[in-house]
Design brief:
With 560 residues, the chain is mainly β. It has five helices and 39 strands. The chain folds into five domains: 79 residues; 101 residues, Sandwich (Immunoglobulin-like); 68 residues; 93 residues, Immunoglobulin-like; 109 residues, Immunoglobulin-like (Sandwich), CATH 2.60.40.10. The strands form twelve sheets. Strands 10, 11, 13, 14 and 15 form a five-stranded antiparallel beta sheet that branches. A five-stranded mixed beta sheet has the order 23-32-30-26-27, with no helix packed on it. A hairpin with a 2-residue loop joins β26 and β27.
């Protein structure tokens, strides 16, 4: 009995020791920030020559995970079939298709991106690449650069930068590249192990990950000439990514309301030709913006008719003019109530008068009033402008056929004063012969010079005889705009009496002289126009902000 008891005690001690020896995931301790690395012993040798194997293995120094291999693992030059990438313990296995034929005397690079990460903290393996050659040596040249948005100059990540050994323009649509890489979050890329030679180079958004440019749905950037890759290469390439100039096309039209046909386009309206069907009693007023057209119309009887827009036909249903005028109210656009959300108010409920809005009126500028419908006439006797309860005279009202819903009031404003404006019933007549039935009110507060600020903007590195546009914006609102042709390499713009705000200045090299920024066109080899924006320091009262801007920011950095 004592012998059995002694054996039982020994067994308990052994079991306890075994329990202590069990391995488990450690708890606590410092966070692991070290990425997994390849262990040469047990891995297929990197940078091998005369490589013809159909599989390779990379063994790591810790437990790892493999994620998004289909998107992250890229072979350059591309193979006919995507290799199979799997995980076996601590080893990544890459298997090539048995029918895959490697190119002769070619250096291949397998980029793993961030597909390989350590098991516990998710640290990706850094710059994980496997390089092999089917010839006697490894190509060692490189190309590096950056991709930015052509309009904002902001860097763009995950853009495919592709090198082709075929120089035809159509290759970007038909073939996969010979070499490629993708940009990181800073917009930078690097392609290594390139052979010497001339290459067509493009940067493509590649939304569908097929390594081809799919036309106007994907942005593109390109070099003006072929890239000569050679031993003495220096510097970095810059690609300005843009949406290719699309073919003019009419978008989703809106003909659901009497009195207006809304026509959106996929590009500017410069080439839009509007031709109405001849219909007795039909009157039209066409209002154009940069990428849309509103055709205002009036016709006495409900009649179906058509608008011909270039090669498109827009059918307009017969709608009731009487019903339209019954609900029609001419107002200032900012006084139009937002659409009711949820249950609609009863039709008999009175519409409350909008509160009187106070707006800051710059003493140097005219007051601009935007209406909800196009205006064709004004009665200045029914526009009452009051200063200290006294009616003032000498103001003028102007309409603009290019902006038919806008009225401009010109007057020599006195700084530091508040003007009360009453637009009395019958003061404004719209396209349908209707007038405003309510009194529309505004308070215009004119600041003093000490309540305003100024800007002195120095523009550098201009090209003589080149047209330029400079814009001052407050948010999305255009405050000032200047057009000029450079005669000197520098130009200084001084603006006084500016309202207090945080402004952005935008400088454009206007290649075609149309006064706005134009995108590029790959097929005609036209780069997007150069443009740069700069956010200025906040403008304070009785203060002048000094700033410098250039279309060559690197030149400014070298001066500073």
């Amino acid at each position: 009995m004592e012998k059995k008891l002694r054996h039982f005690k020994i067994l308990v001690v052994v079991c306890g020791l075994c329990a202590c020896a069990r391995q488990g995931a450690p708890t606590g301790g410092p966070k692991d920030t070290t990425p997994p690395t390849v262990v040469p012993l047990g891995s297929t040798p990197n940078y091998a020559t005369r490589f013809q194997d159909k599989h390779l293995e990379l063994k790591f120094d810790e437990w790892i995970t493999l994620s998004e291999a289909a998107a992250q693992v890229m072979v350059s030059p591309p193979l006919v079939k995507r290799p199979e990438v799997t995980l076996k313990g601590k080893t990544v296995v890459v298997k090539f298709d048995k029918a895959e034929q490697f190119r002769e005397n070619t250096t291949y690079t397998i980029n793993f991106g961030t597909a390989v990460k350590d098991l516990h903290e998710g640290n990706p393996a850094k710059d994980l690449r496997f390089v092999f050659s089917t010839g006697d040596y490894i190509d060692s040249l490189r190309s590096a650069g950056k991709v930015v948005d052509a309009f904002t100059s902001e860097p763009i990540d995950n853009i495919a930068v592709m090198l082709y050994d075929i120089l035809a323009d159509s290759v970007v649509r038909k073939e996969r590249p010979y070499y490629f890489s993708r940009t990181d979050k800073s917009g930078s890329y690097e392609i290594r192990n390139i052979k010497a030679g001339r290459f067509k180079v493009v940067a493509v958004e590649d939304l569908d990950q097929n390594l081809r440019w799919d036309g106007e749905n994907e942005r593109i950037g390109f070099l003006d000439t072929a890239l000569q890759v050679r031993d003495s290469m220096r510097g970095s390439l810059l690609f300005r990514l843009f949406k290719n100039q699309p073919k003019f096309r009419l978008g989703e039209k809106n003909t659901g309301a009497y009195g207006v046909v809304r026509l959106p386009f996929n590009t500017t309206t410069d080439s839009a030709i509007i031709r109405p069907e001849p219909v007795a009693g039909l009157r039209l007023l066409v209002e154009k913006s940069q990428d849309s057209i509103q055709v205002w119309y009036d016709i006495d009887q409900p009649t179906a008719w058509k608008i011909f827009v270039n090669n498109d036909t827009v059918s307009v249903k017969p709608l009731s003019r009487e019903d339209f005028l019954l609900k029609h109210t001419l107002r200032l656009a900012s006084d139009v109530p937002a659409p009711t959300v949820g249950r609609k108010a009863p039709q008999t409920a009175p519409v409350p008068a909008p509160p009187v809005t106070t707006s800051t009126q710059n003493p140097q500028k005219s007051a601009v009033f935007q209406f909800n419908y196009p205006v064709v006439a004004t009665d200045s006797t029914r526009w009452m402008l009051l200063l200290d309860s006294v009616r003032v005279q000498g103001f003028s009202l102007k309409t603009d056929s290019a902006a038919p819903r806008q009225i401009t009031l010109q007057y020599p404003w006195l700084p530091g004063k508040n003007y009360h404006l009453e637009i009395q019933p019958g003061a404004v007549t719209d396209f349908w012969g209707q007038t405003n039935t309510d009194t529309l009110r505004r308070i215009l507060a004119v600041p003093t010079d000490k309540q305003l600020g100024g800007l002195s903007l120095k523009i550098e590195n201009l090209r003589p005889t080149q047209a330029y546009v400079v814009q001052l914006l407050n948010g999305n609102n255009l405050v000032e705009e200047r057009h000029w042709v450079a005669g000197e390499p520098e130009y200084t713009l001084v603006l006084n009496r500016l309202n207090l705000a945080t402004y952005t200045v935008r400088l454009l090299e206007d290649q075609n002289g149309n006064g706005r920024w134009d995108t590029g066109d790959y097929w005609s080899r036209r780069q997007p126009e150069k443009i740069v924006s700069k956010k200025l320091e906040p403008l304070r009262a009785n203060w002048e902000v000094e700033a410098t801007i250039s279309l060559n920011p690197d030149a400014l950095k070298r001066k500073q």
